[in-house]
Amino acid sequence: MGREDMRAGDADRKAVAEQLKTALDEGRLDLHEYDERLQKTYGAKTYADLDGLLDDLPGTVPVQHSQVQPAAAPPSPAAGVGAPAAPEPSPRQWVGGYAGVVVVCTLIWVFTMVASGHWIYPWPVWMLIPLILGFFGQRFGGRGH
User: Fold this and answer.
1) Bigger pLDDT: 87 vs 118
2) The Cα angle at residue 105 between residues 128 and 102, in degrees rounded to 5
């Protein structure tokens, strides 16, 4: 009994289908060709029917050598009772960054006012409100206090 007479099982067809899916994901098959080969895979009765479906495809690239890096899983929101909580940023960390933005906007306002030669509404003052509220909220009523 040769390969032409040996019946292929569901597991064999599934293995070929998975290899075809991998080839599609890696861009070695286009969608139309993948569909055609997948129909032939699930219609195959013997190993000989399955043999020609993967012959022209090179082997798959092992995950360790692939160029695509898997994304890190986001931290679970319910990390558990005993899990350490993520450290909160200190006021100096976020105030320093936002204060820099306020300084840059104030400089833009000053340069624009000097260049135009007349008084311009001091719009950077509005940027101080979130800075002040955030600072006092973190200092006196922030999370975990």
Assistant:
1) 118
2) 35
pTM: 0.40
* Distance in angstroms (rounded) separating the CA atoms of residues 83 and 77: 11
What is the rounded CA–CA span in Å between residue 144 and residue 85?
11
Q: What are phi and psi of 46, to 5 degrees?
A: -125, 170
Distance (Å, rounded) from C-alpha 17 to C-alpha 11?
Answer: 10
> 19-39, pLDDT tens digit by residue?
889 888 888 888 998 999 899
DSSP three-state, residue 44: coil
In 3D, which of 58, 65, 55 has the Cα closest to residue 28?
58
What value does the CA radius of gyration of the chain take, rounded to a whole number of Å? 32
**Distance between first and last Cα of the chain:** 78
Asked whether the predicted pLDDT for residue 66 surpasses 60, the reply is no
Residue 104 CA to residue 124 CA, distance in Å, equals 9
In this structure, what token pair is assigned to residue 80? 């558990």
Which pair of tokens denotes residue 110? Answer: 């000053």
Q: What's the whole-number average pLDDT of the chain?
A: 77
How big is the CA angle at 99 (ends 95 and 101), to the nearest 5 degrees? 125
